[in-house]
Amino acid sequence: MNLAFRPSRVGAAAPMFAVSRPQMLCVAVLASMGVFVGCSGTDSQVTRPTIVGMTNTTPPYYSDSRTTLYEVQTPVTMPMRAPNAQEAKQLGPAPAYLASFGASTAPWIRVDDVQTTVRFTISNLDDQKHSVELLLDAWNPYVVYVPKIEIVSQDVTLPDLSSYDRYYVLEPKTRYIGTITPDDTREMAVDLATVMNINVNDTVDTDLNAMFNHTFNLQNRSTGNDPLIAPWIPPPQDTPALIGFTLGLRSSEQMNLAVEVTVDVQDVSDGKKVMPAGQAPNADNQPMPPPGGTLSPPAAVATM
């Protein structure tokens, strides 16, 4: 198998391949059904656990003569509050790049209005060591980010990077407990806004697929003054916050392994951006609807 992750790629003829969507194997998706646990205060909530797992019978979602990949996914929504009619009227005009994705106003929840922490536990249920990718793909109110597969050459297959994409190695029958910090989730939101802007306005770069992956590379932070992406990073007031993500696991082998996540969302602005804990939705408190569109790297050759 040949897998590579590079910020720059050279296109070539694609080998024969077979692709299906990653398996939506969900053990518990309470958060995606809008069931949340409130913590102290009305401007902070912690979701119930969401679990997704792969087994030794999970079918591949991508396979060619050299590469086989297995992936499972599940959606994770966050308890974000939509603006009521009066609040929506007070929002300014949509930034041009967001208007291209259907926005009619400025973002209601901006990237610095909330702080989001994702806590996760990866459990290896097998008697052998496994390496697995933990994947989170960002949602904002307009799009869900959907990475694809790029066939670089007859010998190299490149899965596009996810918004958060990191390998973990687990010893037999062990667990890994970790935290994706508010800085990390803020970066996910900024990176998604950045590639939206690139997708609409970058007419100079000939390899937008490479630009997307460069943006989402965990080593390239939006605060690092990267000359490639800095011109495309929207200002914070024009950057929508994260409202959910697609949780996934990916590996080159079948295995019995699962990940469980909880999400802690804190409103650090006016106390109106997170659904009130313990209250049923009403005319003034409605959850943010799911995104209406998707965004993928434009040059990848196979959808997942």
What's the SSE pattern?
EEEEEEEHHEEEEEEEHHEEEE
Which structural class is indicated by helix and strand composition? mainly beta
Count of domains: 1
Give a quick account of the main beta sheet: strands, pairing sense, barrel closure.
Answer: 7 strands, antiparallel
Question: Helicity, in percent?
Answer: 10-25%
Unreliable stretches: 1-21, 25-42
Describe the global form: globular
Strand content: 25-35%
Cα gyration radius (Å)? 19 Å
Number of strands: 18
How many distinct helices? 4
Notes on the protein architecture:
The protein has 304 residues and is mostly beta strands. It is built from 4 helices and 18 strands. Helix 3 (182-201) runs antiparallel to helix 4 (208-216). The radius of gyration is 19 Å and the shape is globular. The two termini are 19 Å apart.
